[in-house]
Every structure is written in C-alpha cells, then in structure tokens.
Amino acid sequence: xxxxxxxxxxxxxxxxxxxxxxxxxxxxxxxxxxxxxxxxxxxxxxxxxxxxxxxxxxxxxxxxxxxxxxxxxxxxxxxxxxxxxxxxxxxxxxxxxxxxxxxxxxxxxxxxxxxxxxxxxxxxxxxxxxxxxxxxxxxxxxxxxxxxxxxxxxxxxxxxxxxxxxxxxxxxxxxxxxxxxxxxxxxxxxxxxxxxxxxxxxxxxxxxxxxxxxxxxxxxxxxxxxxxxxxxxxxxxxxxxxxxxxxxxxxxxxxxxxxxxxxxxxxxxxxxxx
Length: 274
Known about the structure:
By secondary structure, the chain is of the alpha/beta class. It has 7 helices and 16 strands.
C-alpha cells in the first residue's frame, strides 16, 4: 500500500498542476474522523479537529499525542463536539501552540480551565487570520450546518455538564504558495458552498461523508463536491468512527461518477503530499 499510495499522490500532483515551491512539499496526514495534520511548504504544522488518543479508527501506533510530531504550531477546531476537540487542550499545552476556534467555544475553554487564556483565540465566521505573519498562512472561518455543544465532566462534582460551544464552522486554509485547503467540518448541504468555492477556488477539499443524523451522506457529499465546490482534489472523512456514520468511501466514489475532481481515498494514518 505504501508504494501504491506514493504513486497515486505523484500522479495526483501532476494532474492537478499544483503550485511548486523551492521549499518542502505540502503534507496532509489523516488521523481518522476529522483530524488532520497539515505541514505547510515552509514547515508550519497545523492540526485540525484533533480526536486521536481515544479514536478507535486511529492506528494504534498513532494513538498518542507524541505521534502527532515533534512540534505543532497551531490548533484549529471546527466545533466543540468531543470527536473534534478531545485532544485539543492537551496539544495546546504540550506544544505551547495557539488555539483558534468558534468564539463561544474558546471562551468556555478558558472559563473551564481547559486551555490557557493567552493561547486561546476567539473567531467568527467570515473572519480571517494570518497566524504566522503577514506573508504566511491565511485562514478564513466558514459556515457549517451543524451544532456545537461543549460537554465537560466537572471534576468537583464528577457530573457531566453542557457549556456554550459557539457555532460550528469550517476553515479555508491558504498556504504560503497559494494552495487552498477547505476543511468543511461537520456539515449538511448549504447553498453558499458554491459561493464560497467561487470566491476562494479550492485545491483540496476535506469532506464529511458519514451520513446518519449528523453530517452529509455520500450522495450529498458528492453533490457538494462535484457540483457546488468543484475542487481539484477531495479526501472523504468523518465516517466509520461510530455506528451512526454508515456512509462509505465506496458509496462516495460511486456517487462522484466521472467527475473531474481527483478522489483520494486515504486510510487512517496515511499522508499525501502535493
């Protein structure tokens, strides 16, 4: 599988005619569910929706914070549900890495003592940040059709509580060479996917396909990808991690049909390069 994946990625990079830098390649590693590590051309490491240590779909060898790598420069979360932020506080503290997420979620995390206030940043949809300087990575928060409650076990009472989690979102991440990755977060279909795609011209889409009562099913995800967003490449995510997520990559691929979008079916733990 290792050799075939390298061949697939090489073919993908050629087919997409992606921007080329003299620096390192773009690396995108999937840990399962919606957790990704993106290594930018200049070596910045961005982790999105980190649910790793207790994710049953993450390979055993990677189910520890140290496996994320020797450094993390930024932690993003699309919403406050456990399967998207479970390891965010620990990563923030371990690497002294800034956290960015929905405004209400960030406030709750500080108030509950989950993350240090000096590393915890509030953001709203439509907002844009350049966390590494004016010429570095550009990140825009986008809409997502989903909820965002923050569940927390109070250590003083040993009881579960529900706190404000802000509004669910996605992130469009424009790397130093102009390559754009859109992590949709957890979402259903919405018409402004087309508007945002026309505005930002997406190279790589990370799209949930698990269906059930929580996110798009494979057919809706394929429609969003093929007809609304039209990225150059797509990686399906957010499936099989629990019994409610019944959509499969095979169903997604079938629904995509003969689309010009390059479908990259990546297994948990694997890395693709561009």
